[in-house]
């Protein structure tokens, strides 16, 4: 029950934030959509809740998620600016390619979210994930290095450290 309640509240708050305003229509539709989504996907959104977390732990994780959102937007905007610079170059100076990057994450939800964050960041796109080796195959618009450790630091480390803390 607590898992469903936390899922509903999280989705409802996200709905209000992304709708851009509060009105009766927004609250009504947000309630319906949040209830429907909660009833269908509550067990998928918070898999870590099977660890019997206390309410304080839920609040800490929710606070970390709220703190992580500006970090993601900063990285997305920074990457969008880098890609935009490449668009206006007379002679393209970027070298696209596919790199292999290993993650330290073990939680399935965190691995999925990291893949989506990589794809949502302009200039990178997750192509595949090898479960056995926990390796992402990422298309990178400007491959700066083929060395796995350095590519890891450039592409996923900034997100991975947050997700590791949130989904422990």
Walk me through this protein's architecture.
The protein is mainly α and 168 residues long. The chain is 62% helix and 11% strand. It has helices at 2-19, 24-45, 55-87, 108-120, 148-155, 157-166, and strands at 97-102, 124-130, 135-140. A hairpin with a 4-residue loop joins β2 and β3 (135-140). α1 packs across α2 (24-45) and α4 runs antiparallel to α6. It starts with a helix and ends with a helix.
**C-alpha termini separation:** 21 Å
Largest sheet: number of strands, sense, barrel closure: 3 strands, antiparallel
Helix content: 55-70%
Structural class: mainly alpha
Number of strands: 3
Number of helices: 6
Provide the gyration radius in Å: 18 Å
Q: What is the string of SSEs from the N terminus onward?
A: HHHEHEEHH
Q: Please list the strands of the largest sheet in the order they lie side by side.
A: 1-3-2
The best one-word shape is: globular
Low-confidence runs of at least 5 consecutive residues = none
């Amino acid at each position: 029950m607590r898992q469903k309640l936390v899922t509903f509240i999280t989705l409802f708050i996200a709905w209000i934030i992304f709708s851009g305003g509060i009105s009766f229509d927004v609250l009504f539709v947000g309630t319906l959509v949040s209830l429907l989504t909660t009833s269908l996907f509550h067990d998928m959104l918070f898999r870590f809740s099977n660890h019997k977390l206390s309410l304080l732990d839920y609040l800490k994780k929710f606070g970390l998620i709220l703190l992580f959102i500006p970090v993601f937007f900063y990285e997305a905007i920074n990457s969008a600016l880098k890609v935009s610079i490449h668009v206006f170059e007379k002679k393209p100076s970027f070298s696209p390619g596919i790199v292999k990057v290993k993650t330290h994450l073990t939680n399935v939800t965190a691995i999925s979210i990291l893949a989506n964050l990589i794809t949502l960041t302009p200039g990178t796109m997750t192509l595949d994930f090898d479960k056995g080796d926990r390796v992402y195959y990422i298309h990178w618009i400007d491959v700066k290095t083929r060395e796995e450790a350095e590519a890891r630091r450039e592409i996923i480390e900034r997100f991975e450290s947050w997700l590791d803390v949130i989904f422990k």
